[in-house]
Design goal:
Two copies of one chain form a homodimer. In chain A, 43% of the residues lie in helices and 17% in strands. Chain A is of the alpha+beta class. The first copy, chain A, has two domains: 1-61 and 320-350, Malate/L-lactate/L-sulpholactate dehydrogenase, four-helix barrel (Hypothetical Oxidoreductase Yiak, Chain: A, domain 1, Orthogonal Bundle); 66-180 and 222-309, Ribosomal Protein S8, Chain: A, domain 1, CATH 3.30.1370.60. In chain A, the strands form three sheets. In chain A, strands 2-3-4-11-5-6-7 form a seven-stranded mixed β-sheet, with helices on both faces. In chain A, β8 and β9 form a beta hairpin. In chain A, α1 (6-19) packs antiparallel against α2 (24-39) and α4 (87-105) packs parallel to α5. Chain A is globular. The mean pLDDT of chain A is 96. The interface between A and B is large, with 82 and 82 residues.
């Protein structure tokens, strides 16, 4: 049952979340976010997460329909407690609040804590860019990354996202871990039985390793920059930890029992600096000049942040999304447990 | 004439800038910033810059005493035109404005254009952290870095700085180029006749090189992440280019005739999220846990951003600052040209 259209996957995901107690609007938002990740090629953040989220609902770690509370607020800042609702629902609300505040007050920061996994940061920063503003996002989560020089997992992959509106060029949409790679990449190599390139992980004794299994036997991911300049990725990751873990009140990766994401969102209203149309013309010109650069041997083109995802999206929208056998089996089991009839959804061919 | 005390160097620098037309307060600010860089071990941003700045004054590219204009302003944002004044003077004013705005309005962004070289970013973000706030800074400048996959110099080293206040631990003060290294590092290797480690530069044809001369013969610096994940450093550098080059109105690195720094400063008032004392306790705890990590073979300790600079500062404050012969000779010539009596300053032993 491997290749499904995005609409079908969304419908399946929605029905499952509703069957597990999610209000319709929340089920829709979360499902859209997961399928969007699949469309963009980030399967580790796609419908495979239905399994994790449903388990979290069952053990009470994720509470569909939880009230979202604004615990502190000024005209240009807010602190939100998610009460363990869906990360996507709380984070979307946080970003919409930040956009509204930046519209009125030039710049805003909104942090959130006590919420589940929010998925890809680019989903939220893109909301700001679609409104002609700059979107910035950082999150922390559970520890998988060693500090530069250390061999314990004390930091999260601590991703950062920047989104900028463009004119004719596709949206500038950066979304990167500050570790040298995300954990999902190592897991894929493990499942495929492949070795890793040098410089991604260390084993439990702190020695460099190319065996993906070592990450899951006490090893750690390395910060961006590797042995040569890993203090840079480490420093950035630590800054994310401070903003998304401490300023948000969510807690740091190293703390006992850390779950969910700590969230730091920021929005800047371009119009308070220059007309947004002028900004778009200038960023288009920058992108065109960069893309027209003479190439290094071995490269065929230069890709702007977000461009690869957009291309994958076009292909998968037309050709469908491949779901691995094991993922599909587990989703089917979860659905059957609450009488969600996948066969009906599939036969409707939506 | 190689080793001088910080106070003596500051005095020499002040007198030279005054002799070349700088108002006393500007001469003091710029000199403090340059000597501070020497104290912290960043000699490439230290008094060696006196030579460059004086030449810029002579050809009219740098205008001491220039009026600083606020061309756009809201309660939490501002856009500043420096009219080609000293970067340090304009940038300090910009950061002070940002701090005042964040104090009143939780968050602020201040951008600046038409100003000369501002020196180290950490000087400015530290001002915010000293006031119990978060300081963020980005600048762009002339092009030295190739995009990921390209071989033309189209981006600047595009540094980013984050400063956070701490309690008992030393200030968290990150200040890193988003290229794999700064240009100064390559220049030092060139002068010493040493090879570079792999992964820092490419030659004019885009091939990896360890010969520092290749950078100055049409080559380029590589973005942070190298061949493996250089799209990450490239993406960050491009984001800096957009915020510090486009949003600021300063122009991008790739544009013909680009000079000076484009500046993006941001300040966040911690008190609007949590009591700053609580923030300090939490960041202290984070720093202590990270520093207590079990080490990798070959490492003797874990350093927090800013820690190395602080240690160097203590040593150089006590032992003095070494000035290379050539730098000292050129500074002496510049001084003599305007009758600044270095011998008098040195004999006063300040």
């Amino acid at each position: 049952m491997p290749i499904l259209r995005a609409e079908t996957l969304r419908k399946i995901s929605e029905e499952i979340f509703k069957a597990y107690g999610a209000p319709a609007e929340e089920a829709r938002l979360v499902s859209e976010s997961l399928v969007e990740a699949n469309l963009c090629g980030h399967d580790s953040h796609g419908v495979i997460r239905i399994i994790q989220y449903v388990k979290a609902i069952e053990r009470g770690a994720l509470k569909p329909g939880a009230e979202i509370e604004i615990v502190r607020e000024t005209p240009s800042s807010a602190l939100i407690r998610g009460n363990w609702g869906f990360g996507q629902v709380v984070a979307r609300r946080a970003m919409e609040l930040a956009i509204g505040k930046a519209e009125e007050n030039s710049v805003s920061v909104v942090c959130a804590y006590d919420l589940y996994h929010i998925g890809r940061l680019a989903d939220y920063t893109a909301l700001a860019a679609e409104r002609g503003m700059v979107g910035v996002a950082m999150v922390n989560s559970t520890p998988t990354v060693a500090p530069y020089g250390g061999r314990e997992r004390l930091l999260s992959t601590a991703p950062i996202s920047y989104a900028f509106p463009t004119g004719e060029e596709s949206m500038f949409l950066l979304d990167i871990a500050t570790s040298v790679c995300a954990e999902g990449k190592v897991r894929v190599s493990l499942h495929r039985g492949e070795r890793l390139p040098d410089g991604l992980i260390i084993d439990k004794d702190g020695h460099p390793s190319t065996d993906p299994a070592d990450l899951y036997e006490g090893g750690a991911l390395l910060p961006l920059g590797g042995d040569l300049v890993g203090y840079k990725g480490f420093g950035l990751g630590l800054a994310v930890e401070v903003l998304a873990g401490i300023l948000s009140g969510a807690g740091c990766a190293y703390e006992e029992g850390k779950v969910g994401n700590g969230v730091f969102f920021e929005v800047i209203n371009i119009d308070d600096f220059m007309p947004v149309e002028e900004f778009k013309e200038r960023i288009d010109a920058l992108i065109r000049r960069i893309k027209s650069s003479k190439l290094r041997p071995g490269f065929t083109e230069i890709l702007i942040p977000g461009e690869l995802e957009l291309r994958t999206r076009r292909v998968r929208r037309d050709e469908g999304i491949y779901i691995p056998e094991r993922t599909w089996r587990e989703i089917t089991e979860i659905a059957e447990k609450r009488d969600v009839r996948l066969a009906d959804i599939l036969s409707r061919g939506c």
